[in-house]
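WARN no homologs supplied; continuing
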Amino acid sequence: MDVQQLLGEQAGSLLGHTCKGIPKDSLTLPGPDYIDRVMGHSDRSVAVLRNLADLYDDGRLGGSGYLSILPVDQGVEHSAAASFARNPEYFDPANLCRLAVEGGRNAIASTLGVLGTVARRYAHRIPFIVKLNHNELLTYPNHACQVFFASVRQAFEHDGVDYETAADLTGQANHLGVTIEADLIKQKQATCNSGYPAVDFRKTDSLVYSELTTDHAVGLNRWQVANCYLGRIGLINSGGGSEGKDVYHAGGPARQRAISEPRLRESTRESPRSFRPVRSLPPMRSSLLFSPYGLALEASRNVRAGISRTSPG
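OK structure emitted
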């Protein structure tokens, strides 16, 4: 794929940009040795480290330190009709898992029902991430209300300006996630800044806006990475709404280069397809995939537990 052609007129600005507020050299960068170099020095249990290694080693990006996860949890928050009407075959959970496997993803993230229905067919072929909570969207008029649609035990058992994406607000949400020892942060891509001043919240510093960030896509998203212990804890962007430019956004350096300036190098390794026995998992400290809009339970071969958190403000 020609990234410059994909980005078009913005290629020069995005690919040639150097972030000076949070320099690249200050970050912990992803790489093949990420688990040993970074997570291996933490207080994660041996079993959690093993499962994280499974997650990072799976799929086409396996061994690169980068992740590509197929999220299919929209059936609750956006309704099944809105999610699958254009492709009715994806009402079938088996087709969703098959898509993730054939696409070489590191994992598939979905609901307890989707993953539980085909767990014995696919749990040994691709890591599972179980979404425990969703906005319920069952009331009228509707209001956002996070509700648990599954329990941790269940997951174990079946093996104007919208400041919602402001860099300062989402950055703080990331920092809360790593503070409770999340192993991976899922966050919307930053598209603006100055969320704290907009709501007149003074627990910030003017340096964030004058020196540490810019209005450039890389600068905004670099601040998100900085709040993940300067990259020690991985950050993955959620997809957001579909605008017919999915490939363009996936190729944009606001996603790929928020972590480092070098281009994302796609692994040419074949995605594992052969059967691997499912190992038993005793009770342990939860391995957390933190999202400010709710926490997904992360599973790699074996399902692990998480805690719900909501968006600040």
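The CA atoms of residues 137 and 143 lie 7 Å apart.
OK
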